[in-house]
Amino acid sequence: MKSEDLTVKALIADPYAGYAALRATTPVHRMTGPDGLPVWLVTRYADVRQALADPRLSLDKAHATPGNYLGFKLPPALDANLLNMDPPDHTRIRRLVSQAFTPRRIAALRGPIEQVAEKLLDAMAPLGRADLLAAYAGPLPITVICDLLGVPEGDRHDFRAWTDTLITPDPNHPEEAKAAVGAMLRFFTGLIARKRTEPADDLLSDLIAVRDEGDRLSEDELTSLAFLILFAGYENTVHLIANAVLALLTHPEQLAAARAEPELIAGAFEEFARFDGPAPLSIRRFPREDVTIGGVTVPAGETVLLAIASANRDPDQFTDPDRLDLRRRENGHLSLGHGIHYCLGAPLARMETELALTALLRRFPDLALDVPVEQLRHRPALRARGLLELPVRY
Asked: Is the whole model's pTM more than 0.85, yes or no?
């Protein structure tokens, strides 16, 4: 694949080959983005890592010039979140969230996660085959993150459909994405109103207390935080688990090692995240001033996309980067970010992935793909790496 032939469609179809071509020839690449608007794509590890922590690259859309890719189009009540903020607002809100998103609360979820995993596997066991995405990798994270936030069970059924519509909108039916956004806004507004009258021992009740007692969160910031935690906590973990399972099933020697030494799974999260993470690109950034990246000057206000998936396969940083190695120890992957925007939910994602994979391999020691790997299809999205389904037998 030649770098000049690369388009969004080509990068979706074969991302790792495409990024390898770019790293070797044009590591900072001007291209047409997901919505037809121009972007700068940065592909080498050293450049991506430096840019992730560069304060000159803003997440605030106010620094974008007209005619550039902006990412999701959300109403203010969902858009005032950490992925659109720079310091000092980012610092203030992240500090407040950290006070509620405590290690104690995350550690307390270990038992419930194990129970949910076993319940889902119990339901799968008599069938002998299943779509692992629908039967296990999807339901587990949505249950966990909803329990953490305090979302009642009866309110959880539509969330996966809404997030899928946002990640892979149908260009022929733009009204569907608009409807999904409206439904999510009504959902969170109603949920917060109920939590105000009936608070509980959950993360959302704590965030509401921060908003109402200290007046340190605006109402839009509160609603946007709830949206971000639920959206990111569900979307990324679903596909991290499914991608990890696929990686194991297509690397028999690594699968054999994981079965022989289950303790490998606890330390393998970093390798799964590096090898085929769910977020190939960082959130878009906008230079506050002209910035030179990899020898290329990017004008102020234009959109920069940092190719995490490419950086994680850069041979200048990783030995044999296209090989899955559960024993890899020098693994400074960038799937969880770097700098002040490092993923707040990283401890939860690690624990969920470890427990999900450990239970799955223990319960189904003969787990295997139920279709040829060539028949598997990924979602047609540049900014998200995930399967449409994962048929397995056991």
From this structure: yes
Angle between helices 203-214 and 139-149 (to 10 degrees): 30
Per-residue pLDDT tens over the stretch 46-66: 999 999 999 999 999 999 999
Non-local (6+) Cβ contacts of 172 within 8 A are none
Tokens linked to 47 = 């450049």
Q: Say if strands 129-131 and 57-58 run parallel, antiparallel, or are unpaired.
A: unpaired
Contact between residue 229 and residue 146 where contact means Cβ atoms under 8 Å apart: no
Is residue 1 predicted with pLDDT exceeding 60?
no
> What CATH number is attached to the domain comprising 135?
1.10.630.10
- Ranges of H-type helices in the chain: 8-13, 15-25, 45-52, 76-79, 89-100, 103-107, 110-124, 132, 139-149, 159-167, 174-197, 203-214, 219-249, 252-260, 263-276, 308-311, 346-363
Q: pLDDT tens digits for 378-393?
A: 988 888 999 999 999 9
Tokens representing 360 are 């799955």
CA distance readout (Å), 231 to 86, 228, 351: 20, 5, 18
Secondary structure letter of residue 378 according to DSSP: B
- Structure tokens given for 64: 């974008």
Range of the domain at 292: 3-393
CA neighbours within 13 Å on the CB side: how many for 211?
Answer: 20
Q: pLDDT, tens digit, for every residue of 259-285?
A: 999 999 988 999 999 999 999 999 999
Residue 40, strand partner residues: 30, 304
User: Given CA atoms 90, 169, 250, 237 in this order, what sign does their dihedral have?
Assistant: positive
Which has the minimum average pLDDT: 173-177, 203-207, 296-300? 173-177
DSSP reduced 3-state for 49: helix
How many domains does the structure of the chain reveal?
1
pLDDT at 45 over 80: yes
